[in-house]
Amino acid sequence: MTAPNRWRTVALIARREFLVQVRAKSFLISTGVVLVALIAGIVGIAAFGGGEEERSATVAVVRDDTLTPYLESSGAAIDTAVTVAVVPDEAAARERVTAGAADAAVLPATGGATVVTESGLDGELRAIVASALAGHAQERALLAVDADPAAVRAAADVRLDEQALDPPDPAAGERVALSIAVAFVLYLQILLFGVYVAMGVVEEKSSRVVEVLLATVRPLQLLWGKIIGLGGAGLLQLTLYGVAGVGTALATGVLTLTGTALGTLAGALGWFVLGYLFFAVLYAAAGSLVSRQEDVNSTTTPLTVLIMVMFGVASVAVRDPDGTLSTTLSWVPPFSAILMPLRIAAGVAAPAQIVGTVLLMVAVTGGLSLLAARVYERSVLRTGGTVSWRQALRG
Is pLDDT at 247 greater than 50 in this prediction? Predict the structure, then answer.
């Protein structure tokens, strides 16, 4: 069989596997449910938890409206909106505090003022009232000696330039959220579709369908057709999740890093392909070692545990994506498949690191695929008990 014919056969098998998977009710229902939940969750975050709650306070003052601008400006200095209610007497001011209509009441007193509250001033409101009273008293003192308060304030308005050697990333929160989402989704997709490959191999083997198929195609063509077809379905599903999630987040303002979000999505799709291929060849080989679906866990458990360890490491690394653990393990296949997209989302992955880890992942996956292909080819037609890895490798 010529090379074009071999690849045409692989493409036909891949097309069949892809169509069977994407037309399955379970695939359509699960994809639809996740998409609806994803979009609803992001819209809910935007509506109820998308930003910080604006701080505010209401202060009642007795007759003296000149204190109002000082209270308002003092509140604005610490991002607190202050509403001032001018009341006719102390009784009205106290009544507002008692009724909960005011957080504090400023009553005139000799040498200053008395502040009435329900249960005491918190730190922010104390600072607002103290600053306002000090500014108000200063202006009255300046007027008493015929000084111009505006000129004094202008003279005291000193410019302050700040230079931070290591300024914080204002989008750090969004980057962390992207990193967590990428790690979690990749973990699920790689695990889920790796298991699909193993179960598909076992199903064909136990039903003896594989014997009919191998009468017309070679084992490796069947292996790669299944891997590529199921991988295409997984990539399609992940793309739908990513486009829906990123699109909704950008549209609702939950994410503002358009370039980073799109780059993270592209990186996640690419690394899913690499991570999936790494594990799919091994899951296919593991599935070929058994003849019953009940036995598949005995050969695939080590692979499942490895994927869970990868996610555990990613859960730790997300707190410090540029730390030693994340940087070192991102060069080690298959940890690269989760840690590198996490580092890309966090904005700490250099182009050279990305290219280097991709090449290393491709090389290791290529070597493993040769090993897994040998196992698959030598064990897929064996029925009965479980074939050990040693027996499959020795032939």
Answer: yes
